[in-house]
Amino acid sequence: MAGALDIALVQTRTPATAQAGLDHVAPLIREAAAGGAKFVLTPEGTNLLEQRRDRRAAVLSSEDQDVAVLGLRRLAAELGVWLLIGSAIVRSGREGDDRAANRSLLIDDKGAVVARYDKLHVFDVNLPNGERYRESATVRPGDGAAVADTPWGRLGLTICYDIRFPHLHRQLAQAGASMIAVPAAFTAPTGEAHWETLLRARAIETGAFVLAPAQGGLHEDGRRTWGRSTVVGPWGEVIAKADHDQPCVLHAKLDMEAVAKARAAIPSLTHDRDFAPVR
């Protein structure tokens, strides 16, 4: 869709409970709306960040009962903005599986949930510095991609580790996404090494805006996240970037016509070819 869009990425350092998470992020969303943003995006784990399994189990709620989710839906309606809750850590609701869902929620300006996406790729890694993560132990991965309509164009939904899977982003773009959200809680070592490079690569490959609100700093559960929330244009240019890991609001204006121009210049999304598999 043609025209300009005022957005804001909210960078947070989310606490370990939903009420504290809401208290932390709500003033930043108000600041974003007061600055003119029509679409506000928050990071992965907006409601709570708690990787210690026993403590997380004690504070976990279902989506329809989570204090932060309910509060943010009301806030979107009050402010008259579209809001992407980059993700909320909530009960998955799957019988026989007590793991959580890591779920993006797109909220319209009336406070209604118009799209949901559960993180497809869970973060199971052993980092060179000795850090070890097994997100699959506490999070049930999703089983489908998601593209949602907004007043400004289609939005592709991803979460954090998904950024390392180019084929997902390609499918989102081929499904009409002109914007792709990458809410994240990137670790500090991988963020320093890979964050901006991956974001720019996905934007170049898809000819889409990549919108990446991030967690930043040292959290209550001991993890340290990278911050550096970033907006990348469809030609791969960094439009706006936070150069730190402190909580903040990052504003940007998107020229939605730039998507069509980038895709016309390099129409690689239409150039797929079948080929024999590697043997």
UniProtKB/TrEMBL annotation:
It comes from the Bacteria. The keyword Ribonucleoprotein does not apply. PROSITE patterns: CN_HYDROLASE (PS50263), UPF0012 (PS01227). Transmembrane segments: none annotated. Residues 5-256 form the CN hydrolase domain. InterPro entries: C-N_Hydrolase, C-N_Hydrolase_sf, Nit1/2_C-N_Hydrolase, UPF0012_CS. Gene3D superfamilies: Carbon-nitrogen hydrolase. Keywords: Hydrolase. The keyword DNA repair does not apply. CDD domains: nit. It holds the Pfam family CN_hydrolase. One of its GO terms (molecular function) is hydrolase activity. Belongs to the carbon-nitrogen hydrolase superfamily. NIT1/NIT2 family. This is Carbon-nitrogen hydrolase family protein. The lineage of its organism: Bacteria, Pseudomonadati, Pseudomonadota, Alphaproteobacteria, Caulobacterales.
